Amino acid sequence: MKKNNPIDFKIVESMKAFAENYAKTTDTFFCIDPEVTDSVIQGLSKNKDLFGAPLCPCRYYDEKIDEISLAYWNCPCVPMRERKECHCMLFLTPSNEFSSLRQTFS
Length: 106
Ligand code: SF4
Prior knowledge:
This protein is mainly alpha-helical. It contains four helices and no strands. It has helices at about 10-25, 35-50, 65-70, 80-85. Helix 1 (about 10-25) crosses helix 2 (about 35-50). The protein is globular, with a radius of gyration of 13 Å. The chain starts with 8 loop residues before the first helix and ends in a 23-residue tail after the last helix. The relative contact order is 0.22.
């Protein structure tokens, strides 16, 4: 397990690219508050950097390594893949009151 900070820049960029592609693929959008989106991307990137997988950053886990091996909360998590439910508010459906029209970071 890696312990150093800061988060690898390339990992943050790859998580952003993933989020852009996945939003377009699923017809979902980023939050109207960009700080929410940035914070989730940072959390996903940190877990990817530390543990090798983008474990959802918006939940508590007793053991992150064990949780990653189950794959349920590895982004995109099962609730997102099955029902477009992202409790982190990274991917929002157009009907969500907090949804913007953005699917990119530029
Ligand atoms: Fe990813 Fe699911 Fe967490 Fe949303 S709730 S950031 S889709 S793991």
